[in-house]
Every structure is written in structure tokens, then in C-alpha cells.
Amino acid sequence: MDNDKYVSMQIKCNVPTAMRGELKLLGAKDKKKYEYLATVKQNIEDFIKQGCSLYIYSRYPGNGKTSWAIKLLNEHIKNVCESNNNNDLVGLFVNVDELIVTQVKPLKINQYYLDLCKTVDLLVLDDIGCSKITALEDQILRTIINTRLLNGKATIYTSTAIDDDLVDNIGLRLANMVLDTSTIVELTNTPQRKPINII
């Protein structure tokens, strides 16, 4: 595989800089769930073709939710880079709070970016439901998610909220839309983030 092309596609898909390499995670209590997610990773193209959705949830921050979502996105990017010379956008990593602050709250909504969220093969919506949203933000998220569902597009969600907490933050209608159409994987490991050592 052409590594320059792979990194270039990761940048295009908005994969965070620190997550462009090999992501190592310690399974511990979540061994069975990690095995399941590894199976999804092995079959990521089928996951995408079937328009599946995955909801990776934990009440603990920093224990692998986002890392796993990006591992799955990176696998798809790698497969595309190995199989053809297509330079189209094949996936997108979107932090929901950042989406709202940078694409929705400015005076002019970035419709082009929101349309990309509706149409890419694989969308990662990171930290959905972790903070309360307004009626406009609810409408925009519902439109993105509903359009993806209607068009059989695969979506991976990560969150620290579920059930009543999720409903409190994003409303019953949107919470049901997300949870009812997703396979839910709950991670129970304690946080894995480590400080960066200064030499």
C-alpha cells in the first residue's frame, strides 16, 4: 500500500493526527467486546455495504471508544487505498460538539460539509449526546442520521451517554433513532489515556 496516499486520505477524512498510526488498546475487562470489534474491523467492507450502525458507549472517558471507531475507519481507508486509485472522500470523522461549533453555530451554516456527513460511505459521529443540543442542532443531526439510514449508509457513534442521559441531551426522537438502529457495545475498562513523557 502507498503509505503517502493512505495518510493523505486519513487527513481528508479528518482522522486526528494522533490516531493515524497503529492504535494499541488493552482489552482487560472488555476482552470479549474487543474481539467483537476486531471482527467488525475484519469485515468492515460488509459492515459498510449493509449500512450497519454501531454505538460504542462507556460512562468512562478515555477507555477506547474513539480509538475503536477510528480503527474501523482507518481499516476502511486502508482497504480503499489498496484496492483502487479512487481519491474520493470515503469516510469522515466528526466530533459532534465541534460540528455544532464550527459548521452550525456560525452565521452561515456550512451546507456542503453537512451534505458530506450525509453521503460518505462511513461516518463516525464522536461524542454524540455528551452535551445538550438546541432545536436547530437536533434538526440538523436528525437530518444527517435519517438521510444516512434511508440511503443505507454506515455510521459509528461514540458516547458517554445512553438511555435517559442520552434522551436528556439529544431528545427522545433522535436518541431512539440512534439506539434502535445500532448494535450497542458498552466498554467498561477504566481510562487508558497516559501522559506524554517530556524527555
Rg (C-alpha, Å)? 16 Å
**Which segments are poorly predicted (pLDDT under 50) over 5 or more consecutive residues?**
none
Largest sheet: 5 strands, parallel
Order of helices and strands: HHHEHEHHEHEHHE
Q: Find the structural class using helix and strand composition.
A: alpha/beta
Strand fraction? 5-15%
Number of DSSP strand runs: 5
Helix content: 40-55%
Distance between the termini: 33 Å
| 3D shape | globular
Q: Can you count the helices?
A: 9
Q: Quaternary status of these chains?
A: single chain
* Average pLDDT over all residues: 88
Biggest sheet strand line-up: 2-3-4-1-5
Features:
199 residues, alpha/beta
Notes on the structure:
By secondary structure, this protein is an alpha/beta fold. The chain is globular, with a radius of gyration of 16 Å. It contains nine helices and five strands. Helix 8 packs across helix 9. Strand 3, helix 7 (135-150) and strand 4 (154-159) form a beta-alpha-beta unit. It has helices at 3-12, 31-42, 44-49, 65-83, 96-104, 111-119, 135-150, 163-170, 172-180; strands at residues 53-57, 91-95, 122-126, 154-159, 183-186. The longest helix is centred in the middle third of the chain and has 19 residues, at 65-83. The mean pLDDT is 88. 49% of the residues lie in helices and 13% in strands.
